[in-house]
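Friendly challenge for the regulars: who can give me the structure tokens for this chain first? No prize, just bragging rights.
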Amino acid sequence: MTHNPNQPTDTPTDRPDRPEDKGADIVQLDTARDRRQRGPIELLDDDEFAPAPGTATGPADGPVLEGQIVRVDSNDGPDRGDWLADLENKARDRRPIVPLWLRSRTEAIDTLKWVGAHFAHVAGFQVTRTPLYAGRLAVRAPRGLARLIAGMVKWTFDLEGMPVRLSAVGKADAEGYLKLSRQRDSRVRLRVWIAGTALVTLLIAGVLIASAPTAVQWSALAVALAVLGTLGKPADRPLINRAVIPTTVERLTSDIVIRALTAIGVSGINAKNADVRFVAPITRDGPGWRADIDLPYGVTVADVLDRRDRMASALRRPLGCIWPEGDSSVHEGRLILWVGDKDLSKTIVKSPLLKAASHDVFKGIPFGNDPRGRLVTVPLIQHNILIGSLPGQGKTASVRELAAGIVLDATTEAWFHELKGTGDLDPYEKVCHRYISGIEDEAIAYAADSLTLLRQEVMRRAAALKTLPSDLCPDKRVTRQIADKRSLGLHPLVAIFDECQNLFAHPEYGKQAGMDAEFIIKLGRALGVVLILATQRPDKDSLPTGISANVSIRFCLRVAGQIENDMILGTSAYKNGIRATMFVPEADAGTGYLVGATPMPKVVKAAYLDTPATQRIADRAHALHMAAGTLSGHATGERPEAAAPAFDLLADIAAVVGPREAKVWNEVVVERLADVRPEIYGPWAELEGAAKTAQLTNALKPYGVKTGQVWGTTEDGKGANRIGIVRDDIITAITKRDDKRGSGAAS
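First reply, four minutes later:
Bragging rights claimed.
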């Protein structure tokens, strides 16, 4: 046997396991690893993959040895169990057995209503034009009679065969002519009898009709005119007008879609390499066409959204008809292209609340329509809502629609603050527990005080909800059953702050208002307390990040750039293709991206309520609250600067601050108050730092007591200046309040 010096003396299969051999294998593995680290892997052709003579390929799952070739792609077939996974992948997007419009009761009813209205319109249109059609038939009847006589003569005497017979005569084809003549004579003999019989029948029918009642005569005349008029109609002028003008929108096809995608200039999609795959047939979806597309590898839906205007040009449709969106639940390259028949910007969405007798906020509030005309409902309970846009894009109109649903629920307590001063929410004033409209400091202070009271209300509700039995409140959150029990005081409470940037950016009230709002948003959602904030300046100063990061529902109309977009819609929204910058100024007013209310972000056009419509809804809501006995506060004529608390704060402070203590730090006063009334002041004491100090400062503002820098000594004996109160100010405030009460009682 010849020994090959290039071949190892021991192979892995016949040599025994020795420690030194294992060490060699480890060295060889390290060598292979070093090769991978030195440079990129080169994929070889099949011929280059062929192992060299004397080189072992080795087992697929064994150690990689020196000189061994390992294939990157395995040629082994799938495991026996993979067929189920393959089937699941293929069936991932099953087409529904029942049409989508039949799976939803609301959509089925809406579809049937539309079909009924369509045919009712067609019938009414045609019935009203019956005299016109009768006149046309009468005018065309003589021509029809002439055509009928000429046709009968031509048919009876076989005149249509005359050109053929003349052609035979011209060719001197005697035999052919004789055959044609015999055929013509045979036809004429039979047709003369048929025509004669028909003529005699018509004459007899005419005689009978002449002696028949008048109604029969008119009916026969109408039938004759209808038949003759139909025979006499011009080819280019139909008798009946169209009741519905057919759409001129071009049918969406795969060729048109590919042409549009290659024309918008996205890198990775071009005429030579348009690797676009349609994952479902292009179908009608509402008033438009829908195409489900897998974009080429490496192209994302965001790339297409950036060029929506170019796509509109490529599809030869208005920009308001083109609504591409992604389906990230599949992958980032799944594009759902919807092309509408009508421009969404020219559509006015009517609110279902215009004719609603009442509404239940626990079922959400009908907010608007998506581009396909489907109603979108915004859940309210257990959510907070943030609305943002540039000025004039429909932000306040969106707030009006939400407010309509709120006031039409007689169990809901409304606190509305319109901090622009234009009176957009004034119609709802008559049903609000607290209401203010203005931009001056007094209005801002009133709104800030509302947040302070809401914070106290959240703490009160938390304690009240905790005491409810588990059978009534198993999930420790407000439900419709609990809200209907008015004695519990856990009914829905919704506070709207329109133009909230004027509150949060205020130099005196803004910081504490932001802290209160963040507290309410985090804890109030399960307690029936809801905040709706609307702003036209979404930045970190006007909209604290603690607020924007914790709201669960966001509606963003047109904004200027990426920063404002992400402030409203959430971090990375712009990167993920949710871009409110794509909306056109003024043309897309009222249209925005809605996030958090539906499983996927959705473009929605909010319903529009003008001032008269808003007033009618407010009048109906006022009657509902009057009947239910739920009007309170501002709606009953009260105009307090702050709602009176269930405790006497000034008296409590006077009790815990002794006569010998001229000045005391706020934090010390709060700790003492918590010892006296833990159920009231305990949550204040749990706060840290400036938040604890601010609680007392804000609570004293309605009484005209101001806090300031107070010198004191810390526990370790060091002196420090901190925010505190002057006891004489507390005593003065008590005296003024008591004098005012006394004079009021005397009068």
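The mean pLDDT is 81. The chain has 25 helices and 18 strands. Your move, everyone else.
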